[in-house]
Design a protein that fits this description.
It is a single chain. The chain folds into two domains: about 150 residues, Alpha-Beta Complex (Aspartate Aminotransferase, domain 1), CATH 3.90.1150; about 250 residues, Aspartate Aminotransferase, domain 2. Helix content is about 35%, strand content about 15%. It contains 13 helices and 16 strands. It has a seven-stranded mixed β-sheet with strand order 4-12-11-10-7-5-6, sandwiched between helices. β1 and β2 form a beta hairpin. This is Adenosylmethionine-8-amino-7-oxononanoate aminotransferase. Keywords: Aminotransferase, Biotin biosynthesis, Cytoplasm, Pyridoxal phosphate, S-adenosyl-L-methionine, Transferase. Catalyzes the transfer of the alpha-amino group from S-adenosyl-L-methionine (SAM) to 7-keto-8-aminopelargonic acid (KAPA) to form 7,8-diaminopelargonic acid (DAPA). It is the only aminotransferase known to utilize SAM as an amino donor.
């Protein structure tokens, strides 16, 4: 570089294409130099609380000694080995741990959440012999083509790729509100759609619809979906990538309704935000119906990621996560209340806080406002939301809430 200091932000703008971003970028990106605890240190010297858990994964925060040690210890043995015909201790122990946590005995380790959903769709197609899935509007399941086909067809991405993705069957968006009364007409409409002979499975996000709109619905609808699947002989796929590992106040989203799905996808918080890894889990009965599953990622079962996941799950088991998530919920409810009078909606569930504005948010203005309050947020559409790390103090969560209100009303 000729001895001159490198302008990373300039190089980033010139060469890097960021997620959901235009070229050239419409909103500037911020260079992060380091992270520790629940804070990011930006290149301009500011330290800000990461209100996003870096997209919902870093539940323990950053530079966690136990996870650091697990990865560095594994690095001294091997960083990677193919999973076809070979196996290794970190992946075996992780699969055993996930099976014990969930009750699903068969674990397929994937590279990312989107891949885990693709695998779940393949499992359903192979197990049932049917090509279509029933899902709900307002959902989000990932960015690859199978995933896009079951994302919201209007507000999601797949209207851009109309004709290129598989056509699925869509029920209306579940009525909003965790405590809202059940609309029997809605349940009846889902039951009618489930009778489509081409449908072999239902896929949905249990209780919390994430990137499709940050919406919460009554767990009674999840129980209704389970009953409808049983009545029509359909498999139920629960996409727990965003809801898994305590985020909604229960260990898994399905726990709110006391039901079990047939296939489950996990990811994000599984590795504590350290490495990309996800999993698709099912029962021995379904696995035997499938037989040969036609999928095999190069980095499947990566030892470093499996070691990180094992350490992260150990930490989760040993920390009072229910109390931590409960405190986050209580603090967000209190802190977001002042916005209620001037916005469309305020909603909180577990360690998830959402402000829905009347109009689309000016992302640059909202992000700058949050940064001025010492918090990193990433709004989208009409939403300013946060998913704090569980290790946040009450004061840090209060700061996040204050930044959210300021960003939403800026």
């Amino acid at each position: 570089m000729g001895g001159h200091p490198v302008n990373l932000a300039e190089l980033d703008a010139r060469h890097v294409w960021h997620p959901y971003a235009t070229v050239p970028p419409a909103v500037p990106t911020h260079v992060v130099e380091s992270a520790e605890g629940v804070r990011l240190r930006l290149a301009d010297g500011r330290e800000v609380i990461d209100g996003m858990s870096s997209w919902w994964a870093a539940i323990h925060g950053y530079r966690v000694p136990e996870i650091d040690a697990a990865i560095t210890g594994q690095l001294g043995r091997m960083a990677h080995v193919m999973f076809g015909g070979l196996t290794h201790e970190p992946a075996i122990l992780l699969a055993e741990r996930l099976a014990a946590m969930t009750g699903y005995e068969k674990v397929f380790l994937a590279d990312s959440g989107s891949v885990a959903v693709e695998v779940a769709i393949k499992m359903a197609v192979q197990a049932t012999g049917k090509r279509r899935l029933l899902t709900v509007r307002g959902g989000y399941h990932g960015d690859t083509f199978g995933c896009m086909s079951v994302c919201d067809p209007v507000n999601g991405m797949h209207h851009i790729f109309s004709g290129a993705v598989a056509e699925q069957v869509f029920a209306p968006v579940p009525p909003l509100g965790y405590d809202a009364p059940v609309d029997q007409a809605y349940v009846d409409e889902v039951d009618r759609l489930a009778g489509d002979p081409a449908v072999g499975a239902v896929i949905l996000e249990p209780v919390v619809q994430g990137a499709g709109g940050m919406r919460f619905y009554n767990p009674a609808y999840l129980r209704a979906f389970r009953e409808i699947c049983d009545r029509h002989g359909l498999l139920l796929i629960a996409d727990e990538i965003a809801t898994g590992f305590g985020r909604s106040g229960e260990l898994f989203g399905c726990d709110h309704a006391g039901i079990r799905a047939d296939i489950v996808t996990l990811g994000k918080a599984m590795t504590g935000g350290y490495m990309t890894m996800a999993a698709t889990l099912t029962t021995p009965e379904i696995a035997e119906r499938i037989g040969l599953l036609m999928h095999g990622p190069t980095y499947m079962g990566n030892p470093l990621a499996a070691a990180a996941a094992g350490a992260s799950l150990d930490l989760l088991a040993g920390r009072p996560w229910r109390a931590e998530v409960g405190l986050i919920e209580e603090t967000l409810r209190k802190g977001l209340a002042p916005a209620q009078a001037s916005v469309a909606d305020v909603r909180v569930l577990g360690a998830i806080g959402v402000i829905e504005c009347h109009e689309p948010v000016d992302m640059k203005k909202a992000q700058d406002t949050a940064l001025d309050h010492g918090v990193w947020l990433r709004p989208f559409g009409k939403l300013v939301y946060a998913m704090p790390p569980y290790s946040c103090t009450e004061a840090e969560v209060a700061t996040i809430a204050k930044a959210m209100v300021a960003a939403a009303t800026a």
